[in-house]
Amino acid sequence: MILAFSVTPLGVGEEVGEYVADAVRVVRESGLPNRTDAMFTSVEGDWDEVMDVVKRAVAAVEARAPRVSVVMKADIRPGVTDGLTSKVETVERHLGA
Q1: From which residue to which does any coiled coil extend (predicted)?
Q2: pLDDT band at 82 (very low <50, low <70, confident <90, very high)
């Protein structure tokens, strides 16, 4: 499964990068394949391990912010691994054709 998620601290002002970094740090330390862009962090693994990482990432932000908003989108496709890379490579291949 690949899960893309966004954690946004609320009630802390406009500068939220420091709080988001707390969440991303949890993801990166998890050892699961992951990728962060300007809007989402994607993490790949089985259901339980991915949801555990998301829960801990949210908790890291929640520890410092009075309110947290979370958006998630999941691609659940049993038997597929390395989707973070292979899905992008497929699109790039089609763009190069």
Answers
A1: none
A2: confident
